[in-house]
Design goal:
homodimer; Nucleoside Triphosphate Pyrophosphohydrolase; Arc Repressor Mutant, subunit A; 2 domains; 30% helix; DNA-binding; WH_DNA-bd_sf (chains A, B); ADP-ribose pyrophosphatase YjhB (NUDIX family) (chains A, B); WHD_NrtR (chains A, B); catalytic activity (chains A, B)
DNA sequence: CGAATAGTGTCTGTAAGACACTATGTT
DNA sequence: AACATAGTGTCTTACAGACACTATTCG
């Protein structure tokens, strides 16, 4: 007799060698017209003292998916949940970690700077780094490659959606969204095109309030609750 | 003294519990105007007798990435390398496999039916199933969910690239590409639009040969060697 | 020649790019 | 009032949709 129940009774996972599994996230924000990434100084070996992405091991007792692991680690470092969190890619191989064959499930996240600044300012090991300054940091493992992939994803999605709103505070103006989009894409865009898309997306509602960012007051908007992101069928900046 | 070398000397991966890690692929092809997926009958527990995606454990001695694992498993089942292979997503959680907390890195692949039919016909455990017939099969684990994600990816990419060419033989006609695209999208498309994109992509060259699929002979084309896939800035079928 | 599929010409429709214009608030 | 930023009107451009047209091959 050899039922599945018999098999499972005798099954011992520790008999099989397994890769080292981690979860890492690339969290972006915008601050002072710069696109920034959250990096953490490594307190332990391996690569102690290097800077790395926020992440770590899965806690199988608490996490019911790698999304939960990513969320838990980001919340530990920032004090809040990211506004946007999607899976990026899985990186693996025998040489990327000195402890052996390893695999990291990576996530791509966005948050408003103001939402987490108080918490980040209070912990010394996490820091926002403008992407133009990343070269000043010694990054652990293949984290530079992961960041490059995340940046590519962010720029692609910015071309066919209004993803940058997830880098903004709960209420925001057209001007702030335009600035966010321009910082991410690294070039100026047509305000008219952005506003046309903003309206067509059906994702937003006016708060009724307005705010003076420049000289004239600008209307404030928020994301409609429960409304999903809208994907456009054409890209911005199609050159 | 506590150097990284000391740390690595004392490091014992087996002390830490680790999720069960697998790699699974969704391989699509086109046959007789139907979009098909390769499924394999499970010879061992768990879920023995159910059908599942081609995949399995990482062989850390031989595979230098999960891509290599996916490629190795697909080659075992089909006899050839897929024409297209990209990472899809990672699925994880405590309940998806009865052996415990598990994680599968999934890949999305395309191949021409004729390239692997001789090999598949010779092995009894692998089978092409038209997606409309998947309901007739008892699928293992969360493989239905993985297939749904792969199908979504295939359809999306078909809207903004000529990805379906990777389901065709090395040389093919405009008509075959149109048929492939229509089968994948489940609706007819404008031949003129397809040919405009085909030319604009710069991905193809004429073989000089032609072929009678219908009454009149059609020109044969192939992918230019070393040329990457072209992504269009607008979608087809934007309704 | 007619039938069927291969392939082209060209008009329409839609949404982005460009940019001038008007509106509103601050000094 | 001057000015700077908010927001609109509208022309142009690029490319997909529609569909009629011509071309080729076979019976």
């Amino acid at each position: 007799m050899n039922t599945e129940a018999d098999y499972l009774n005798q099954y011992d996972a520790s008999r099989f060698p397994s890769p080292l599994v981690t979860v890492d996230s690339v969290l972006f924000t915008l601050h002072q017209q710069a696109l920034c990434i959250l990096v953490v100084e490594r307190a332990n070996h391996p690569q102690k003292g290097y800077w790395g992405l926020p992440g770590g091991f899965i806690d199988m007792a608490r996490d019911d998916s790698t999304r939960a692991t990513a969320m838990r680690k980001l919340t530990e470092k920032t004090g809040v949940s990211p506004s946007w969190l999607e899976q990026l890619d899985t990186f693996s191989g025998p040489d990327r970690d000195p402890r052996g064959w390893s695999l990291t499930v990576t996530w791509f996240a966005l948050i408003a700077w103001a939402d987490c600044e108080p918490h980040i300012a209070s912990v010394s090991d996490a820091r926002w780094v403008p992407i133009a300054r990343l070269a000043d940091y010694s990054l652990a493992f293949d984290h530079q490659k992961i960041i490059t992939a995340a940046l590519h994803r962010l720029r692609q999605k910015t071309m066919y959606s209004l993803l940058p709103v997830y880098c903004l505070p709960e209420t925001f103006t057209h001007g702030q969204l335009q600035e966010a989009t321009e910082v991410i894409l690294g070039q100026s865009i047509q305000r008219k095109s952005l506003i046309r898309r903003f309206e067509a997306s059906g994702m937003f509602e006016e708060t009724g309030e307005s705010m003076a960012t420049g000289t004239r007051k600008a209307r404030l908007w928020r994301r409609k609750p429960g409304v999903d992101i809208h994907l456009f069928s054409r890209n911005l900046l199609t050159d």
